[in-house]
Design brief:
The structure is a homodimer.
Chain A (H helix, E strand, L loop, with lengths): L6 H11 L3 E6 L4 H12 L3 E7 L2 H5 L2 H5 L3 E5 L3 H13 L5 E4 L4 H9 L13 E7 L7 E4 L9 H17 L6 E5 L10 H14 L7 E6 L1 H5 L1 H6 L12 E3 L3 H13 L4 E7 L5 E2 L7 H14 L1
Helix pairs in contact in A: 1-12, 2-12, 5-6
């Protein structure tokens, strides 16, 4: 497939694919969530299942309610709405799950429920973000800004596998993976840098399929050719990374917040690991960001 | 004094102050370092002491060598150059120290030398950065992106005291200090968030003088009014921070690299703690960034 290098290309690809996904939205009571879902409907890549209480009739536009591609499901409480959505996925009646105005902990509890949830034993729940920033010529994927505070080596392996699989759905055949640290030096004082040596060895042995992996390196070395050149670094990953793996949640979250606010980036994000992609947007996300997250999930489902 | 809200205002303030500092530069063999020092000379806020080997005669412009405000000091090796510069500071003959083309470890060794160095017993060596970003209406101070990987509570206290003192030199009478985390929640699993509670208590008791301090909060909450409003946060610090204190070096370094590359920020940085400000610029810094760091050091000396 042709490589997808921007969000408009991602949306165009989905709109042309003529393959709609069924999006179950838990408590879509806010304008941004409803607007994002409506736009996915209008772009013809999602059908909607809107789950919630009587507020649905107030917040959903009448055209949406009347659409044959929109299903309304009543649920008295947020917890009931989440459980209903999870059950629809398990029954094969929904392809993607999205959080609306429900507390994150309650929403995740339904997904992680051992008996009825969506995460199979041994699977890792991890967050993937995708940014389109004016300073960068292509999409930039990165993990984990929201779920795993301090990944173990095994968790980093799983995270990279999920992320690389998503990169391939964007037509990136050999993703360039940068393992982020604050310096290029491996030092036992910083266990993540030692993990990185192991990950690169595994990548060389084909554990992740066709990828180029390098690190430790800092964000600028990963994304800026000039910085890499001044340092005399010659890896193809330097200055041209597709995927950034952050050492911990503090640095990942700082990158997310800084590239969006100071770097004016558009952003999409999904949870990976459950049997379907999950959109865990937050209240401060714009309708556009929620829409891009739906598109990312649809491409990934 | 009038508050300094941008780098041009900082430079103008120094140029008008008619109070020159003596800048000792260790191994100024690269164009960026020489250009930055020359510009500080031209702006009339620094006299120069250039310390190094025979390469000085090759790299220093003849006009610089001929200036009565420039002193050339010969040193056969980088270590000798660093030791000479440190000795000049101790003898009261230099006000600021700057690193040129010498290995960072060697440079720091001279500063940290227990017998001859510049860090008095019990003092903390810590890094302060200042950014001017198009997305933000004023200068943004932050620590620590380079020296202390995981600060203890006592180290955070010292770091904040240094940083707040520097903010006051910019005419910021009551600096707004944001304690950065990936969420607003305090959680014993994340010891820095517990430290933050203690720091805010100390701030309330006047430990840091006139400051406003809040946290934990993420970078966007600290710098973006809209994000803070959506979350219902009402602290005056939210959306209007002057100083960001990062939980660890990975997040601090990520912020530094992201705000400069993706956020197109100009940046200055100094080491604080030694008996004089120290400029520890790196090879990939531009001449402009090195110049701004000299100005920051001069304002601080």
């Amino acid at each position: 497939m042709k490589r997808i290098s921007s969000f408009p290309e991602m949306v165009q690809h989905l709109a042309q694919a003529d393959e709609r996904k069924r999006l179950a939205v838990v408590c879509p009571y806010d304008e941004e969530t409803v607007g994002a879902a409506q736009k996915a409907l209008d772009n013809n890549f999602a059908d909607l299942i809107m789950i919630g209480d009587e507020r649905l009739s107030e917040t959903l536009p009448s055209a949406l309610v009347a659409s044959p591609r929109v299903t309304i499901v009543n649920a008295a409480t947020p917890d009931e709405a989440a459980a209903t959505a999870v059950a629809l996925v398990k029954e094969g009646k929904a392809d993607i799950l999205m959080k609306g105005l429900i507390n994150t902990d309650n929403f995740l509890r339904a997904i992680l429920n051992k008996e009825h949830g969506l995460l199979e034993p041994g699977k890792l729940l991890t967050h993937l973000s995708v940014a389109q920033a004016p300073a960068y010529p292509k999409l930039l994927f990165f993990s984990d800004v929201a779920v795993i505070p301090y990944p173990t080596l095994a968790q980093r392996v799983e995270m990279i596998k999920y992320d690389v699989a998503t990169c391939r759905k964007f037509g990136i055949d050999s993703p360039k993976v940068a393992l982020i640290h604050f310096t290029e030096k491996v030092n036992p004082k910083f266990p993540n840098s030692v993990d990185y040596t192991e990950l690169i060895k595994m990548a060389g042995e084909g554990e992740f399929g066709d990828v180029e992996m390098a690190g430790p390196m800092d964000v600028k070395t990963a994304c800026d050719h000039h910085s890499a050149a001044v340092k005399g670094l010659t890896s193809d990953v330097c200055g041209d990374a597709d995927l950034l793996i952050f050492p911990n949640i503090e640095s990942g979250n700082t990158f997310y917040k800084t590239i969006t606010f100071f770097g004016k980036a558009d952003i999409a994000g999904i949870l990976q690991g459950p049997i379907c992609p999950v959109i865990l947007s937050s209240r401060s996300d714009s309708a556009e960001s929620k829409f891009l997250s739906i598109a990312l999930a649809c491409l990934n489902a």
